[in-house]
């Protein structure tokens, strides 16, 4: 069964350095400059957005928190550094009936500081504890070493399954 749509308050997640805040259209202004770096799409194949309006339109669609056909929850969080409230990236969870696929993007200037690891760890705990999702996966390009390193640190392990040419990684609980 698909979990109930979480309310804003339920979606707020905090880590030692970050606040994960439900993403809204208004976050486009802060995230657009980060998303302009073509390097972010090196492994995902995504192109930089054409303009800030395109980012706003995309984020506005995500605010519904459901796929258009209603079969999935599409949950997105902007990552804000608590020190200075700076938006440093975003994380996503596509929640279906019995599973969730997670994804992460950290602006180039903020990479290699453990932010994906920190946010991903908290996101997995939230998906398990609050939404009670039994299976958590991610799909990672075979050459995306940064994503693989962070994924391994938060308890994901590679499987022999492929998703759109990428390797499916699966969360394996240590408890
Ligand atoms: C993948 C991504 C989210 C990682 O974010 P991050 O905040 O830099 O990740 P972390 O700092 O938590 O961990 C990454 C680790 O990989 C290491 N790393 C980064 N790039 C690397 C590379 N090219 N080769 C080897 N190790 C690398 C980092 O140094 C870090 O390890 P360390 O803590 O020992 O230094 C970020 O690189 C990103 O947004 N990439 C573009 C979008 C993308 O590919 N998303 C993932 C789709 S599966």
From the alpha-carbon coordinates, what is the Rg to the nearest angstrom? 15 Å
| Average pLDDT for all residues | 97
CATH topology: Aminopeptidase
Please give the number of β-strands.
Answer: 8
If helices are DSSP runs of H or I spanning 4 or more residues, what is the number of helices?
5
CATH superfamily (homologous) name? Gcn5-related N-acetyltransferase (GNAT)
Oligomerization state of this entry?
Answer: single chain
Distance between the termini: 24 Å
- Give the second-level CATH assignment, the architecture: 3-Layer(aba) Sandwich
Describe, in plain words, how this protein is organized in 3D.
The structure is a single chain. The chain is α+β, with helices and mostly antiparallel strands and about 180 residues long. It has one domain: 3-Layer(aba) Sandwich (Aminopeptidase), CATH 3.40.630.30. About 25% of the residues lie in helices and about 30% in strands. It contains five helices and eight strands. An eight-stranded mixed sheet has the order 1-2-3-4-5-6-8-7, sandwiched between helices. The radius of gyration is 15 Å and the shape is globular. The structure holds coenzyme A (COA).
Topology at a glance:
Elements: H1 8-11, E1 13-14, E2 18-22, H2 28-35, H3 52-62, E3 73-81, E4 87-95, E5 99-106, H4 115-129, E6 135-140, H5 145-153, E7 156-163, E8 166-171
Parallel strand pairs: 5-6
Antiparallel strand pairs: 1-2, 2-3, 3-4, 4-5, 6-8, 7-8
Bound molecules: coenzyme A.
């Amino acid at each position: 069964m698909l979990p109930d749509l979480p309310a804003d308050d339920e979606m707020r997640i905090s880590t030692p350095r970050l606040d994960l805040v439900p993403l809204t259209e208004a976050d486009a202004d802060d995230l657009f400059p980060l998303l302009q770096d073509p390097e972010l799409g090196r492994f995902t194949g995504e192109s930089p957005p054409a303009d800030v309006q395109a980012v706003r339109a995309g984020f506005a669609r995500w605010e519904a928190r459901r796929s258009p056909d209603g079969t999935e929850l599409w949950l997105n969080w902007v990552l804000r550094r608590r020190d200075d409230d700076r938006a440093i990236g975003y994380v996503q969870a596509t929640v279906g009936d019995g599973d969730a696929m997670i994804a992460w993007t950290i602006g180039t200037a903020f990479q290699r500081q453990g932010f994906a690891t920190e946010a991903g760890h908290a996101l997995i705990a939230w998906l398990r504890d609050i939404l009670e999702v039994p299976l958590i996966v991610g799909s990672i390009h075979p050459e995306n070493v940064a994503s693989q390193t962070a994924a391994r640190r938060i308890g994901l392990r590679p499987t022999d399954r492929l998703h759109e040419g990428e390797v499916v990684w699966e969360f394996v609980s240590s408890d």
